[in-house]
Structure formats: structure tokens, C-alpha cells
Amino acid sequence: MNPLLSLEKRRGFGNSLFAVLATACFFLALIPLISILYATISNGASALNYDFFTKITPPIGGVGGGILNAIEGSLVMVGLASLIGIPIGVFAGAYLAEYPGKLAYYVRLLAEVLTGVPSIVTGIFIYELIVLSLHHFSALSGGIALAVMMIPIVAVSTHESLKLVPSSIREGGLALGLSRSKTLVYILLGAARSGVITGIALAVARVMGETAPLLFTALGSQFMMTSLNDPATSMTLLIYNFGTSPYENAHTLAWGAALILLLTVLGLNVIVRAASRLKMKGGTEQI
Amino acid sequence: MLYEISKGSLASIKAFGIDFLLSSDWIPNPPGGGSAILGALPAMYGSVVTTVLALVLAVPVSLGVALFQTELAPRKMRFPSLFLIEMLAAVPSVVYGLWGLRILIPTMRDYVNPQLKSAFGFLPLFTGSTNGLGMLTAGVILAIMIIPYGSSVMREVIAAVPRSQREASIALGATNWETIRTAVLPFARTGIIAAVVLAMGRAIGETMAVAMVIGNVARISPSLFLPAETIPSVIANEFTEVAGNDIYLAALFELGLILFAIAFIMNLIGRVTITRLSFKVGRESFA
User: Fold this and answer.
1) What distance in Å separates the CA atoms of residue B48 and residue A119, rounded to the nearest whole number?
2) A139-189 residue pLDDT tens
3) Can you count the helices (H) and strands (E) in chain B?
4) Model ipTM?
5) Which CATH number fits domain B2-280: 2.60.40.760, 3.40.50.10260, 1.10.3720.10, 3.60.15.10?
6) Which of A75, A234, A279, B109 is the residue whose CA sits 20 to 30 A from A147?
7) What pTM was estimated for this model as a whole?
8) A-chain residues near B60 (CB < 8 A)
9) Which CATH topology does A51-280 take?
């Protein structure tokens, strides 16, 4: 046999093997996604009915009930986190973009490292800082814990989008006699708007799905809250508490809550990415 | 943050000193009354084992996914393939936990574990009961959760390999796989290692999904089938049980401190490496 031919064959085989393996890896990674979606939809859909959205959670082991208090808690705490986290995050990001230098480099690095800090550490941090000094668990401390998580995410994404604004736009603003801060607020943030909003939406989706920072700040509750000082529950806390309990009814509610949560979080992701995809079309190829 | 958590763990650091890291006893409320004996070794052992397991499973798959996305996927498939992997990353961890508890555990118990046991039962790794709750299941869930993260960072560094590098190799007549092996991967090696470090930081801090499937038993055993615990799962499960037991609370804070330090250092190393790398190849930054 011609040795050259066999070498040729071997190289071709190596190449095909690589292609097959890499493609297999990709589809392997999709199996859990499909399984999670299927399980959540098939188990969660049966939980959805009128009571599910209008009643509060039953006591552990009880029958029926809904997740109204969990929906309320999630909305209130994520809302609170957004109120605190978005302005601080956006301005931190603007600072990074406007005043680049050694300090900004380290702040940016710190922000990136903070996004990787385990969320449960944020939880015990807020517990020590706020819960211990106020002597009770509350929706307020839950919201603050989520805000602490949001700030670095929003800051990094704002920084990224501001960096993409051409400097001619900034110079145009300054040439018109606007101060540096007015240029930033009215012109640069306007130009970077879609990127900033994308970052905010992704950060909201991210904290919406967080459980660990709420465990020792909001604690969980079986009732509607009457003020921010009350302990609160959230959809994620409910999934954790009910999902690990031994009762069938609780599991059904947990799957239902998981379905709503997945729809919200994945929905936000889909909308944001589809929107930025549309904008990108025709422009740069980057995603 | 560091200060507050250190403050909280002071009592435990004073009481246990270095023994905290070396002792495998975890007796928060000794039956006879006496003072608590707390050692973090089982939690650290569980964290190390599950993280290593997750990396062993996830790193090859992440690399495969990244290579598929950068080198193989046809142009039309590229966006959908990125999008689906992003969705996997967007699923909240508590939903992974619920899925793990209700879907993955029965699968592991009925199919995977018995198979492993009959094939490799002679190894101490695969002995003991196979009820599904345990380090193996936790490792699998962690692997699934870090694949999207690892693959997205790897994709960035692979995409940053200069075109000329590839073109030179292709011009020499190399096949696709030979180009990747000899020109792309060596160039991207540092970045891929950084991606692994970042994925490791993420795996070690993951709380909810692990807490729901690992079984939560303070024990060091070689078998991957047996329940164990990790640093974040201990904090999540026991934080609400500490009422009045100050030393217990402080010990959990100290665990948080250890976790924070590990995750912080890993993220710092990973981020700094990637930022340096991006300067080296002349691109501004990686988001």
C-alpha cells in the first residue's frame, strides 16, 4: 500500500473525528437544557390555574394554594434592587468610561471579580451588615442584597457600551459648549442607550433567579408583606423550600413557580438578544 | 465586605484557630451540653471533590462547544448555537436544583450509578449505596452549569487568535484539525487555562443546586455515590438553624470567608490573565 495514501487517510480521519466530537459536545450540552425545559413545562403547566396566581402559599403539607406572595416578594425585591442598583451601576460604568486611568482599571477589574463572587457570600455580608443591626429579616435587606449583586454587572456592561461610542460624538457635545457631565448624560448615554438597557435587562434577569442572597436576608414567609420591614418570600425561595419538602402539593407549586420564573428570565434574555441581534444585522458581525 | 465577614467570623477564628481547617468533626450542638466542635474539613473536601469532578466533565465539553462554535458551525448556525448555550447559562440555579432533585437524581439512581458500580465497583470511588443523592450528582449538575460559562470564555480567546496564524497553517496544507491543534490551541492555551480557573471559581461558589442534590452530610468518604456537603451548601442549609449559638454562626461566617477568599483569588487570576492576553493580541477588552 502506498504509505502516502495511508497518511492522507489518517489525516482525513483525524479531521473528521474532531468535527464529530466537537459537534457531539455541542449537542451533549443541549440535552440538559431540553430536559429542564421539558420537565418544567410538563410539570409546571398543570399547576397553573386561577388559585395559583391569586392565593398565598399553603402551610407546609397543606393543600391547594398559590404563589401570590412569592410573586409579590420577587417583584418588590427585584424592583428595590433595580432602584438602588441601576443608577449606581450606570454611573459607575460611566465613570470607568469617562475617566480612564490606573484607578479605573482597578475598579473595572474589581467589578469583574465581584461578579464572580459567590452569591451566598453576598447574602451573609448583608446579613452581618443589615439584618444583624436591624434585628430582623426583611424584604428591604433582600432587595439590598440583590442590588449589591446588580451593581458590578450593570457597571461592566455600561462601561462596555460607552466604549463603543465614537469619540467624535463626545467631541461634538463638548464643542457645543456642554459641560462634561451634561455631555455624558444627554449625549453619550443616549448614544449608548441600547447597550446600557441590554445590560440592565440581563442584570435584572440574573438577580430575579437568585436564591442564595435571599436565604438569610428576606428569609421567606407564608404571608403577603405589609411593609418592606416584613420578611418576604420569592419565587426562588419558594422553589427551594417547597421543592425540597416531601409533599406532592408543594412540588406542584414549586414546578409552577419554576415555570413562571423560567418564562420570565428566559423571556427577558430572548427579547434582549433578539433586539440586539436586529440592531447588529448589517453592521458588525460581533454578538 | 471582607471586613464585615471577617468581623463575623472572629469568634470562630479565635475559638478554633487552625483546627477549623484540619478537623473533620462538625458537632454544633453536642448532646451532652458542652461547647460546639466545628471543623471545616468535610465541607472543604466536598467542595474540592465536586469541583474537580465538574471540571473533569465540563472542560472537554466546553472546549468542544467553543471549537464547534468558532470553527465548525456554518454561518447560519452560529447565532442559534450561541443563543442556546446562553439560555443554558440563564437558567436560575434553583431551577437546576429542582430539576436535579426530581429528574437527574432518579436517573442517576436507576441508570447511571448501577452501571458505574457494575463496571468500576472495584474502585473505592464507586462503592456504597446508590440512592442518587451525593457528590457524583452534584458534580454532574455543576458541570452542566459551568459549561456555558467556560465555553463562552474559551470562545473569546479562540476567536482572538490572529487570522495570520491560522492562514499560515492552512497555507501549509494542514487540515482543519491540524490547524487547530498546532496553530490555534497553543496560541489560546493561556486563555483556556484562565477560562478553566474562572469556571472553577464559579463551581466552587455555586450554592443552591448543590445544596439541593448533595444530601448534606458532614462526612469524608471516598465514594462519589455518598452524600456529602460543600462550603456553600453548609452555609445555605445551616444558617437558619444557628439561633442563639454564636460560635456556630461565627463558624459559618468563617466558611463564608474561606469561600470568598478562594473565589476572589480565582477570579482575579482568571481576569488578570485574560485582560493581559487581550492587550497582547491588541484587542481592547473581552466582555
Assistant:
1) 19
2) 999 999 999 999 999 999 999 899 888 888 888 888 888 888 888 888 888
3) 14, 2
4) 0.87
5) 1.10.3720.10
6) A279
7) 0.87
8) 25
9) MetI-like fold (1.10.3720)
